[in-house]
Amino acid sequence: MEGWWKKNPFFVKYMAREATAVFVYLYALALVWGLVALSSGEGAFNAWLSALRSPLGLAFQLVCLAVFAYHTWSWFVIMPKTMPPLLDARIITACGWRQPSSRASASSGSRDEKALECSHLLVALRGGRDALGARGAGHRRGPDERRDYARLLSIAQSFLGKAFLFAVATLFLWHAAHRIFHTLHDFGVKPGAGAWLACYGVALAGTIVSASALLRIGF
Amino acid sequence: MLAHLPLVLPHGDLRQLRDDGRRRAEARLQHVPARLRAGPLRIEALHHFPIERDLVVDASDFIEKFPTITPWIVPREPRLPTQGEYLQTPRELARFEHFSHCINCMLCYAACPQYGMNPKFLGPALTALAHRYNVDSRDAGAKARRELLNSEEGVWSCTAVGYCSEVCPKGVDPANAVNQNKTQSAVSWFTRFLERDHA
Fold first, then answer.
1. Nearest-CA residue of chain B relative to A184?
2. Chain A residues close to B160, C-beta within 8 Å
3. In this predicted complex, what is the ipTM?
4. CB-based contacts of B54: which residues, under 8 Å, 6+ apart?
5. What are the pLDDT digits (tens) for A74-94?
């Protein structure tokens, strides 16, 4: 079975989906670091922010953006296969989330699911935009770090903001840890205790650290 | 048992396929000339099964696993023929019908890298068949199938590659059956203390 995934383009795509989880893992760690920095005061937060704004930090984020786009898309492709038939086609049609692409015309079942994906994506995009909206129009002249710190702190002090930050950082981490652990197995490496700790152990530690940082920030 | 290939699906069979199954199978057959034009076509024995000779594989593993999923309707209470037939609504039928179209061709087993790496894995087709009975309104055997489905060798060996559903000539979508049961398995793990007659 060694090198099995190289023998079929379908498996190559699958492995690309799995391997991109490494970047999700790294980005989640950067987010956890950001939460810790936010809870440790303005100096630590500005250090984190300037690290992300450095050329290396920006390059890392650009790579992450590209990789996340592929990772997300590939999961949306498999999503219909992982879902129960939740919604009736008529409900979806009534909502107006119809996707007229030829891809969706394969069967009525898959049309529901594709439409559902679209609505999920829209909700996700809107949620992301609303969260970013709190940061203003974004045309700042030079980094106003004091304002950034105050803004993010006020978001992290609200209950909803806490829930959002916690969910994003820890879900990224658990998802990535889980996929990386499986990918090791797919590469033919028998994951031992070390790999288990590096995946799930780090995810658990990251979750505890994020929760305690958010609690330290207070309400 | 002879190796099954999508190329040798007889045309007579095609007419009997319904809805999704038929459309998907026809779409698959339309790909054949394109694939032939693209270059040589490799014909080989089903992957992941021991080869007996040439294209003939030993399917014992699949056949031995078959009865372990209780692949029949377990009635809720004893029922006599005089009580008449079971009645089902079209909606109840739609919940399991396409999962019942499986012809045991084992292409999904040949397509599944997880089965290739771990032959203890129950695999796509049998999970789909177990799911077919679990979601049938006449059946009450979900409990008997649960232990196997929820185990590591059950649905949790699947990593959502999804190739099983790609190669299925009958549109069964075994990946969907497996992954719906992951949700089911997770729910039953969290609610295991709430059940009245928990063994």
1. B159
2. 78, 81-82
3. 0.76
4. B45
5. 998 888 888 877 655 455 455
Show which of residues 30-69 on chain B sit within 8 Å of chain A, judged by CB atoms. Answer: none
Phi, psi of B6 (to 5 degrees): -65, -25
| B17: β partners | none
pTM for the whole structure: 0.74
The residue assigned the tokens 């829209």 is: A122
Structure tokens at B131: 């799911």
Query: Residue A178: closest CA among chain B residues belongs to which residue?
Result: B159
Contact B179 A4 (CB under 8 A): no
Q: Is B58 helix (H, G, I), strand (E, B) or coil?
A: coil
Contact between B143 and B199 under an 8 Å Cβ cutoff? The reply is no
Cβ neighbours of residue A98 closer than 8 Å, sequence gap 6 or more = A92, A111, A115
Q: Does A185 touch chain B (CB under 8 A)?
A: yes
Measured between its terminal Cα atoms, the distance across chain B in Å is 40
pLDDT tens digits, residue range B134-164? 999 999 999 999 999 999 999 999 999 999 9
